[in-house]
Amino acid sequence: MAEQVIPEFDKAAFNCPRCGAFANQEWFLALAIDKFKAEYQNVTSQMGTIDEYAFSKCVHCQKVSIWNRDKSSMIYPKSNNRVFDLSEVPKDLSEDYQEACLVLGDSPKASSALSRRCLQALLREQGFSDKSLFKEIQLAIDSGKLPSHITESLDAIRNIGNFAAHPMKDTNSGEVLPVEPGEAEWNIETLEFLFDFFYVQPAKTKKRKDALNQKLKSIGKPEMK
């Protein structure tokens, strides 16, 4: 699974929100022009700078994204720039994940609320069900079923989110509450690890097994169980 570099204001390179490719970005400040002269007189007359906005231009697709400089946030396009394949992920989980990605730049709080809710639903679907997200994460970690990189990521969600200081994150995982720096992004990346482990890789294994069984059947050999 290729690592995604989330777009950030003034960053030299990231996964382009327009084409999805990892590419260098050229940055420009915004200039105001006289709209009447530009449209009707075909004259570009500068009226000064627009200090609140800047543009990033992807060197791969040559398309432009618009940023709010004061908030260091992207305001156009409103799209999910992450390219994780969700075709094998249940619809209810993929919808929460996509919305968490979509609002990440505008509201890390809302993104974290959606990703925590998605995480809780995923864990419960996999049999790790308890009274709170904290306990459900512990059940998943203690199960021994998950690889170390996923258990470490899950443990970090509790530590970064500081569930002890914000118990509503634990008992009401969908609440919009304060988030720590990096928490929203970490939640999304952990969901991708879990999606890959529980849905994507098993589906790939099944397809390979079905293809092999088809070959075995064609030459009169017994199929794999």
Explained architecture:
The chain has 225 residues and is an alpha+beta fold. The chain is 45% helix and 16% strand. It has helices at residues 35-40, 91-102, 108-125, 133-142, 148-161, 167-171, 183-218, and strands spanning 13-15, 22-33, 46-58, 64-68, 73-76. It has a 5-stranded antiparallel beta sheet with strand order 1-2-3-4-5. Strand 3 (46-58) and strand 4 (64-68) form a beta hairpin. Helix 2 (91-102) runs antiparallel to helix 3 and helix 5 packs antiparallel against helix 7 (183-218). The longest helix has 36 residues, at 183-218. The protein is flat, with a radius of gyration of 23 Å. The chain starts with 12 loop residues before the first strand and ends in a 7-residue tail after the last helix.
Structural key phrases:
225 residues; alpha+beta; 45% helix; 16% strand; flat
- Structural category: alpha+beta
Low-confidence stretches: none
Number of H/I helices: 7
Number of distinct beta strands = 5
Strand order of the largest sheet: 1-2-3-4-5
Report the sheet-strand fraction: 15-25%
The radius of gyration computed from the alpha-carbon positions, rounded to a whole number of angstroms, is 23 Å
Distance between the termini: 28 Å
Series of secondary-structure elements, N-terminal to C-terminal: EEHEEEHHHHHH
- Fraction of residues in helices? 40-55%
| Basic shape | flat
Task: Let me know the largest β-sheet.
Answer: 5 strands, antiparallel
Average pLDDT rating: 88
